[in-house]
Amino acid sequence: MSPRKGVYNIHRAHKVPHKSKMGSYRAWTAMQVAPYDGGKVSSRHVPNRLKIPPVGSWLYEGTFKGLYGHSIDQLVSFKPSALTPMEVMVERNENGRGDDSRRYMGWWAEGSEPPPIRVVQSEGGDLRITDGHRRYFAAKLLGKPIKAWVSWTVPSPRYEVGQGDLSEVYDSTYPLIATGLTYEIAEARGWVARNGQSNSRRATQRNAFSRGSRNAGSRNAQPVSEATVLSHWVKLYAEGKHKGYEPANPSRHAGKGPWVKVALRHDQYDADWNNEHGINESQAARARTYAARPGKLPPGMAFFSGRLARRKSKLAYVADGNHRAYAAYLRGEPTATFYMPEADYLRWKAAQ
Fold first, then answer.
1. Scanning 168, 213, 309, 312, which has the fewest C-beta atoms within 10 Å of its C-beta?
2. 127 contacts 83 by C-beta, under 8 angstroms
3. Quick one: 159 and 226 in the same domain?
4. How far is C-alpha 151 from the geometric centre of its chain's CA atoms?
């Protein structure tokens, strides 16, 4: 049966991109909270200058798999009138939320667009705000469109645990049961573009995690000698935050060669700034200092071995260069550069 009127009929709109072309929930969330030092700095007082992906980008929930698979959300721009708020606290200025919204208006007018809000489509088709009411009301007062990550609704598959086919929807003998769109449902119903195929009638829009080559980190490995890596590390260590505190000891990295220099997208590595732990304000300030310096940022050092490889993670671990990696992101660069032992790089590549 066709989806109920108002429910997103995705195959008429455009293809869902392959999951390798989506950003990750984990990376996006970490990027959004990174400026706030684990809650020590409030978003009510400091604007978030997060670079927002192009409209049409997608997020993939890779850490949790529900009954119908991994959730996917699409970034869409809406007129505020198209959305349904689910609370009145901003309008009533409860706990200063209305004041916050007007503050967001000022930041927005100065060029700091707030991060996208969260929206869920109901079974009836209306778009309900689940997070971001203050941002929504700021857009409404300014008369601006608002960007939102949308969880689209689709007819639920005819499915029982351990049986069934995600491509089968309930027929007319059953009441319509709606569910959030998952990657597996989209794939089973033929809505996922083949790798490399455009995901819309226009050219594919790259998201904030993939500006530049999607193959960054897979084609661009350049051989480099261990001597070069170690001398580079010693120099940066002596000039960095450890200056005058602890002598450099390159022996801990010796014997791991041969090495390669590789550019990794910001969702392909695990650093202090883009994981759930975040960074503090002094660390963020150090990264901003790096970002403001002219010239290329020096490579960091990343690995993929031990527990990371055993637990089937797809993220390289940044052992040195966390601030430089964050500085690359602040500059708007699509990747950060690292030295990796070639063996680690090959393991990492095989895990992708």
1. 312
2. yes
3. no
4. 15
Dihedral of alpha carbons 286, 323, 73, 71, sign: negative
Domain annotation covers residue 197:
no
Which of 165, 188, 211 is the last residue in one of the domains? 188
| Main-chain phi, psi angles of 74, to 5 degrees | -110, 140
Listing DSSP states for 315-336 in one string gives -EEEEE-HHHHHHHHHTT-SEE
d(CA 333, CA 289): 16
Secondary structure (3-state) at 151: strand
- Token duo for residue 176: 């319509």
pLDDT of residue 307: 63
Residue pLDDT, tens place only, 258-289: 899 999 988 888 887 776 566 677 777 888 88
In this predicted structure, the answer to whether residue 241 has a pLDDT above a threshold of 80 is no
Please tell me the distance from the alpha carbon of residue 352 to that of residue 348, in angstroms, as a whole number.
7
Q: Are residues 139 and 229 in the same domain?
A: no
State the pLDDT at residue 74. 92
Give the domain range for residue 108.
Answer: 10-188
- Predicted confidence (pLDDT) at residue 54 exceeds the cutoff of 60: yes
CA–CA distance, 15 with 19 (Å, rounded to integer): 12
